[in-house]
Design brief:
- By secondary structure, the protein is α/β, with parallel strands linked by helices.
- Helix content is about 40%, strand content about 25%.
- The strands form 2 sheets. A 6-stranded mixed sheet has the order 5-6-7-3-8-9, sandwiched between helices. Strands 2-1-4 form a 3-stranded antiparallel sheet, with helices on one face.
- A hairpin with a 2-residue loop joins strand 8 and strand 9.
- Helix 2 packs antiparallel against helix 3.
- The longest helix has 16 residues.
């Protein structure tokens, strides 16, 4: 049986403009910075992908591209199926109430009133926000924002879930509830991208590892093999002095500047 591709990246670049406050600032006020450079990979439907990478490596940029929130500057992205990004505050309007955010999401997706009503009830049942659902999101704690965003996207039930550090805030009880639901989605054959700093959690939940480092594709394959290689890389970093780490980071930054 031929596996069906859910997501394909082909030589994808994503470039951001940064204010230049360094040595070249007299000559260049803006720098073009590769958040991702020449990234290519294929993910099959039903895969549960643990996205690994140190801070600033481009994981959140990858999440935005996967969710269709951002578009590449170079290369092509093919996505088969509806997708949803689950991250703290992702897609939430802080001026609106939680309830109004659900209505807005439904309107943007062109959903019928009956379907929106089902989503509202589902969010109320899963998020357990009580009367806070009718308060402006700007008054929410980060944990409450995570609850709302997670619950809305769970109830939308897309084919592809992108979970970007959404379980790193809030109480452990709700995080366990979310993991239980995501394990159910896994059994249902959903495609899931799971971005987390918890390597043990990634090892336990995912079957495939995707390692992005300094904006570039590093490795993809069996989660155990990729996680082992990533942990070895992290352990080596721990043995370096602050000066050595600074030199490595400065050199890496220079390689990500568009010449």
């Amino acid at each position: 049986m031929t596996k069906e591709i859910a997501v394909k990246f082909s030589h994808v670049d994503k470039i951001y403009k940064l204010n230049n406050t360094g040595k070249r600032s007299r000559f260049e006020k803006k720098l073009e910075f590769y958040a991702l450079k020449d990234v290519s990979f294929e993910i099959y439907k039903g895969s549960v992908v643990g996205v690994l990478g140190s801070n600033g490596s481009g994981k959140s940029t990858l999440s935005s591209l996967l969710a269709g929130i951002s578009i590449p500057d170079q290369g092509e992205i093919m996505i088969q199926g509806e997708q949803a990004l689950i991250a703290v505050q992702a897609g939430l309007n802080p001026q609106l109430t939680g309830y109004e955010n659900i209505l807005l999401k439904g309107a943007l997706l062109g959903l019928r009133k009956k379907r929106v009503a089902e989503i509202v009830q589902g969010v109320m049942d899963f998020a357990e926000l009580g009367d806070f659902l009718y308060q402006p999101v700007k008054k929410y704690s980060s944990g409450m924002k995570s609850r709302l965003g997670f619950s809305i996207n769970l109830c939308l039930n897309p084919e592809i879930f992108i979970v970007d550090e959404a379980l790193s805030v809030g109480d452990k009880g709700f995080a366990a509830k979310c993991m239980k639901r995501m394990n159910e989605l896994k059994l249902e054959g959903k495609t899931i991208f799971f971005v987390s700093h918890s390597i043990s959690q990634v090892r336990k939940f995912c079957d495939t590892g995707l390692w992005i480092e300094q904006g570039r594709f590093k490795q993809m394959g069996n989660i155990s093999e990729v996680a082992d290689a990533y942990e070895e890389f992290i352990d080596k970093q721990k043995d370096l002095t602050k000066e050595e780490i600074k030199i490595i980071r400065d050199q890496a930054f220079e390689t990500r500047i568009k010449k």
